[in-house]
Amino acid sequence: MFKQKNYLALGAVVIVAVVLLSLPTRATSRLKLAIGSWFLPLFGLADTTQRLPADLADSVLPRRELLHQIDMLRRENQQLKSQAVQSIAIARENNQLRTLFNWQRQSPWKLKLANVVLRDPANWWRTVQIDLGSRDGLRENLPVITATGLVGRVSSVSLTRAQVILVGDPNCRVSALVENPARDMGVLLAGGTLDTSLVELTYLASSANLKPGQNVITSGLGGIFPKGIPIGQIVDSRSVEYGLYTDARVKLNANLGSLEQVWVLFP
Amino acid sequence: MNIFNPILILAGAFLAVFGEATLAAPRQWLGVQFDWLPALMVFAALNTGLVTVALLAVLGGLWFDSLSANPLGVSILPLLAVGFPIYLRRDLILRDRPFTQLVLGAVASAAAPALTLLMLLSSGAELLLGWGTLWQGLVVTATGALATPFIFSLMETCHRAFGYQPRVEGGFRHDREIQRSRKKL
């Protein structure tokens, strides 16, 4: 049953696995990116296939409908332009007041749009890959957001792609602040294994006065996420460790289950 | 068995890993991503040689880990641990029976992720685990079990359509043919 060639094959595979597992982290990540690049031709194919139904739908859309949409977008654009003018004036006023009080000036966020190209095939991680890399100026630990809220942070970067750890993965911890009178602070930890929209906010003070619906934002502590990025709303809370601190469940604003486009934030 | 089967299996593994990383629907509907590599490994262990089993374990594991946050190489040994015992005992396995394929697919689909998790936990990695993991394991096992007979029939169809068949020597010999003709007188 157990011939010499069996021993050889078994030994060869075990040696390959052991060598790969004992490689230094930098070499492993380079090798990972090199092997991952084998899938590059399939990305284009998948992208074309996904766009095909939308392109077909666009080609049969009546002219009247298109003109109506253009009109709607023009109005929305004008509204947004007037809002932008207002916000510029407010920002200027804010900077003047900060100068008067000798406070540090807030620098505006720089954003880069990225497409989500892959999701982690393993069920025990919550990561995605985006189509921006080091050639686009990406580096590790940059925050990633959507228009609705925080998504995660960049964990590793190759030339053309980057891996993003999503909020709710045990390796993405975020210092968060509850927008209540006491400004309670805690740490966002892992979420549920099945429901990607709920995460655990822990290490809140035992006296924290939490109510469902209160907004949770990033606190700015920790040096990765700037202050004020919306995260979600409090769902419920409970006292843990015999009243030592409070845990709360937070419903995330961003829909992590169907991410298609995200913004990488350059603080 | 010819070279076509290993190529087909490795191409299938490549596409399976890509599909697992791009298809969002299973995760949205069931909260689980399917894993088709163990089912492919069952097919490879029952129908191909040891080299193909080893290649599938190494390449399939590497492809999976390269698209995942797993440490590179962690999926190789679990795949081999699933395929190798089946390969050793394949003479005793009724490989053509769909029920056998279903059971082997279920066992392989349950064992491979469990062994990977064990390796990751023993290396001290922080993983997203909870009661939902049991549901994920159950769905992965069930889908792997159902996928195995499907993979068997798909591979057989592909093999019939694209693969060349070995030449069968018949009993007919040209040199022993009796020449019959009308002789002109």
Task: Provide key terms for this protein.
heterodimer, A: 267 residues, alpha+beta, Thrombin, subunit H, 2 domains, 6-stranded antiparallel β-barrel, 6-stranded antiparallel barrel, 4 helices, 33% helix, B: 185 residues, mainly alpha, 7 helices
Task: Write up what this structure looks like.
- The complex is a heterodimer of chains A (267) and B (185).
- Chain A is an alpha+beta fold.
- In chain A, the strands form two sheets. A six-stranded antiparallel β-barrel of chain A has the order 1-2-5-4-3-12.
- Chain A has helices at 4-21, 25-36, 40-59, 63-100; strands at 110-119, 127-130, 143-145, 150-157, 162-166, 174-178, 185-191, 198-205, 215-218, 230-240, 245-252, 261-266.
- Chain A has two domains: 4-58, no CATH class; 109-267, Beta Barrel (Thrombin, subunit H), CATH 2.40.10.350.
- Chain A has four helices and twelve strands; from the N terminus they run ααααββββββββββββ.
- The model of chain A has no long low-confidence stretch (mean pLDDT 88).
- By secondary structure, chain B is an all-alpha fold.
- Chain B has one domain (4-165).
- Chain B contains seven helices and no strands.
- In chain B, helix 1 runs parallel beside helix 4 (50-67), helix 4 (50-67) runs antiparallel to helix 5 and helix 5 runs antiparallel to helix 6 (98-122).
- Chain B starts with a helix and ends in a 23-residue tail after the last helix.
- The model of chain B has no long low-confidence stretch (mean pLDDT 88).
